[in-house]
Amino acid sequence: MSQKPQETKEKTLEDALKLLDGIREETGQVFELTTEEDMLVREFLASLLKIIQPLAQEVPVSTLVLPEELGIVSKASLDTTGQLLLLYPDERMKLIDLSERKHRDLLLKITYDIMPTLGRLVTSHRQRIEERVSFMSYVTKELQKTAKAFSP
Description:
By secondary structure, this protein is of the alpha+beta class. The chain is built from two helices and four strands; from the N terminus they run αββββα.
């Protein structure tokens, strides 16, 4: 039994409207997710930079995580402004703003790469503070003992 041309036309229109509803729904979700991603990236970079700034001038990034379209890069690092600094063999430099939407996948790759380095920087910073506290604690106690001799 074959469908009449009118039934086929109505079914095709019905299918198209269902597809459009699906596209509209997906587009709404894309908008919501993009808005949330923008906010998270801003907060992530602000927090990351607050950690990096007192610890280092830059955090090295492995050139192996960089996409091929950036070319052959001899050195890469994340600077204290949140930009990716690329140094090429011919000594050209390029800055990439990782907060831009077009660099979100790159931001993820770099984040995975720098986390161990960031951990080492924080640990080293803590150890330096501990050493200073230990030294100052010892010296302060000794000075307090000596100062008692000068008390009436």
